[in-house]
Amino acid sequence: MTNTSSPDSKSIGELVDLSGRTAIVTGGAMGIGLGAVRRLYEAGANVVIADVNKDAAEVAASEFDQPDRVRTVVADVSSPEDATSMVRAAVEAFGALDILVNNAGIYQGSAFLETSLEVARRTLEVNLLGVMLCSQAAARQMIEQGRGGRIVTVNSVESVNPSVLGLSHYGASKHGVAGLIKTMALELAPHGISVNNVCPGGTRTPGLSPLMDEDAIAELEKRIPLQRMGLPDDVGRVVLFLASDLAAFMTGTQVIVDGGQTLRGAAV
């Protein structure tokens, strides 16, 4: 019998209510990751902040007024063991796993002809293989639970067009993620697991300061139709949307969150 039921019959509040659900956010201690943590927590989810920086994760966790709904775990997403331990920690703390947000990533500028094998390899390990490993661990748990789930990956506009020169290795990792999530979506759909990604453009995060001064940021903002850099919360809102029942019929999709930046075309 065809299932014609739809979450559309619920109110907006019900559709974004994540009470009782558990989310892991990798790289969740600051920047876009913390923006996602805040929105998921606000919607009622229990949240595990997974990060390589233990101190930063604990500082982030301390801002929430219901500490029993937030946990921290130290994890290197490029480690299969850490990916598995991260999921285990979430289940031990909250009983299940419903949402994975793949946000952890590294960003190091290097001209193509000068990019070392070490830099390229580490970028691929974290940005691409990290998404694969964490998604495998999370999906296995979701399948065992038998109630579906959501996998949301924070990708980049570099997977659409190169916006900044000197990021060939980074762009390759992000193009890889764009391809990975499409096949993941097909293979995990029979289990009720949706797989989508968010592609931010230039975003003001703590990691931006060492890379761009205010003059460079001002120049970039001139290229953005909405005339400003993105904020972590701009991305966090879209992560919440994709993690909620508002996006119940979306999978294998990328959502660009860049103020129109990619409409300007590739970098020159």
Automatic annotation (TrEMBL):
Which Gene3D superfamilies has this protein been placed in? NAD(P)-binding Rossmann-like Domain
PROSITE patterns tied to this protein: ADH_SHORT
Regions that span the bilayer: none
One GO molecular function term of this record is: oxidoreductase activity
Q: EC number(s) in its UniProt entry?
A: 1.1.1.-
Q: Which Pfam families match?
A: adh_short_C2
Tell me which UniProt keywords the record has, alphabetically.
Answer: Oxidoreductase
Does the keyword Oxidoreductase feature in the UniProt annotation?
A: yes
Q: Which family does it belong to?
A: Belongs to the short-chain dehydrogenases/reductases (SDR) family.
From the Swiss-Prot or TrEMBL record, give the protein name: SDR family NAD(P)-dependent oxidoreductase
Q: Which organism is it from?
A: Streptomyces viridiviolaceus
